[in-house]
UniProtKB/TrEMBL annotation:
Species this protein is from: Planctomicrobium piriforme
Protein name: 3'-5' exoribonuclease Rv2179c-like domain-containing protein
InterPro entries: RNaseH-like_sf (IPR012337), RNaseH_sf (IPR036397), Rv2179c-like (IPR033390)
SUPFAM superfamilies from the UniProt entry: Ribonuclease H-like
Cross-referenced Pfam families: Rv2179c-like (PF16473)
A single GO molecular function term of this UniProt record: nucleic acid binding
Length: 196
């Protein structure tokens, strides 16, 4: 089956799940040609024995409007995550989680899926946009930052710290990168064929 790329962003009140909570999740499912197939968004109740990390909460204090949006219409994670798993399984194609950075967002999503849905429809398939950028830019990992990325990768989409807005923004960027990688690969393949 063709791959479908589920760009996902989470907002949290700390660096790791369990001691801290996922406040909001947003996912945008893209086909490789940047067709947006479907979206998912939910705000979650905090875990009963968890608390906000002081550093994260200090950041939220400076971004109070965005934090307040994560607290609207909250639902229990035991309701949200099975619904999210069902949504993922309804998507056409082979599911690939896409994050920036995947190491952070996937950690929360995977933990919550296993804890509250009993499964991860992603299995362990998580693609990190920054690592992909490193390969495309042929640079060091720590140099593969947004400020060093070409403007052609960025669509004019908002970055609001709303989980769904940010998932759509980064998903479009990933699809632009994917298109460029495929075009480069096609040119390279053609050169190899011509040299034979």
């Amino acid at each position: 089956m063709p791959e479908i790329y589920i760009s996902t962003d989470v907002e949290t009140d700390g660096p790791i799940p369990g001691p801290h909570s996922m406040l909001s999740i947003g996912s945008a499912a893209f086909l490789p040609d940047k067709t947006l197939v479907a979206t998912f968004k939910a705000n979650l109740e905090t875990l009963p024995d968890a608390s906000g990390h002081p550093d994260t909460m200090a950041w939220w204090d400076r971004n109070r409007r965005a934090f307040n949006k994560t607290r609207e219409n909250v639902e229990p994670p035991e309701i949200v995550m099975p619904r999210y798993a069902d949504w993922l399984k309804s998507l056409p194609g082979s599911r690939v989680f896409v994050g920036y950075p995947a190491g952070f967002d996937f950690t929360f999503v995977y933990w919550y899926l296993i804890r509250f849905a009993g499964e991860s429809p992603f299995s362990f398939s998580a693609l990190d946009i920054k690592t992909f950028a490193m390969a495309l830019l042929k640079t060091e990992y720590r140099e593969a930052t947004k400020r060093n990325m070409p403007r052609r990768w960025f669509d004019k989409l908002p970055h609001t710290h709303d989980a769904l807005d940010d998932a759509i923004e980064q998903g479009a960027m990933f699809c632009n990168m994917l298109k460029e990688w495929r075009e480069r690969s096609a040119v390279s393949d053609q050169r190899s064929a011509n040299s034979e």
